């Protein structure tokens, strides 16, 4: 997939509007008073700016992108709320300020050894103490980890990873929320970043061009046939470490057809098995349980 270079004007249209202390103060004030819209007079008074002309100019710069104006007054738009959310997340200011040292994170799917999870530089990393293989690494906003008991880090990270995986598998970019196209890379294994090329799924965002690779087991994890199969065997995805689901992340995988591409997966648990057939977009098109 080829993505056009993002024009500087588009970035300036976002960041340029916010590059002013008074505008930031207007957004902060509207956030703090968000229960109901504020009139021009009340907003100006709370921001504490005497020059009405100056205040009106900077307020109008924020309309309509970050602030909406109605008969009832002024309020933040959805985009304005996202600006506050991005700031509160700590992604841009606190990534290097919070660390969590190694804590136990379950059993390694590669060697059966002990896994450890840690948070450093804005990333959670899970790797094996014995074989030293990297299991997964992903950025998480500092506010998700701040105040967390260290031993709870793996569970929180697992739920975060599951949420991200579900978002991508349902067609939405993890960065810009744009639509993504998913594809199996079983016939072009050089692109794979998974430990087995046949299990690799690539997601390309149509809007921002972000490219993400996931294990196909994670992609089908929220399919009803899969969740019910796991639950019937005592596995609740909401309370499990997703990287320990070896039967799903390392299933029997066979390319059943190349044109059209069809990938057959067999997941086994306690003598029971679930067979899934996926098309070229990693969509389950058939499943049987036996």
From TrEMBL:
User: DUF7351 domain spans which residues?
Assistant: 106-284
| InterPro entries linked | DUF7347 (IPR055771), DUF7351 (IPR055775), WH-like_DNA-bd_sf (IPR036388), WH_DNA-bd_sf (IPR036390)
Q: Which ranges carry the DUF7347 domain?
A: 13-86
Superkingdom of origin: Archaea
Q: Which Pfam family is one of this chain's hits?
A: DUF7347
Fetch the SUPFAM superfamilies from UniProt.
Winged helix' DNA-binding domain (SSF46785)
Question: Per its record, how is this protein called by name?
Answer: Helix-turn-helix domain-containing protein
Q: Can you name the source organism?
A: Halogeometricum rufum
